[in-house]
Each structure stands twice: as C-alpha cells, then as structure tokens.
Amino acid sequence: MFGGLFQPMHLIIILAIVLIIFGPGKLPQLGGSIGKAIRGFKREMNKPDEDTREETKRIEK
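Request: output the structure for the sequence above.
Response:
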C-alpha cells in the first residue's frame, strides 16, 4: 500500500533530520519560504499563458 520512495518511515526520518538541522524555531520561517517559492513558481508558470494571450491579441489587430 505504501510502496515506493516516500514510505511513512522515510518521511519520519526526513522530518527528524530537518528538525535536527533547522531546529523547531526555524520551521515556521522555512515553511513560509517554501510556500512563497511555490506561489512564485505557480505565478511564473501561468505567466507564459498571459504572454501568449497578449501576443495573440496583438497579432489579430
């Protein structure tokens, strides 16, 4: 059922290593930074669609 790379025990070990490296005080900052990076990535992934629409409108005129 839980086959593959991310088995529950693997995730627990990864979380323990992250806690040791960053400490519990830095985890909220780390989570915020990761969330901000993901939002920026999604925004940039949608940007080519907007650029394509603008280019199509410019060509049609």
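The chain is about 80% helix and 0% strand.
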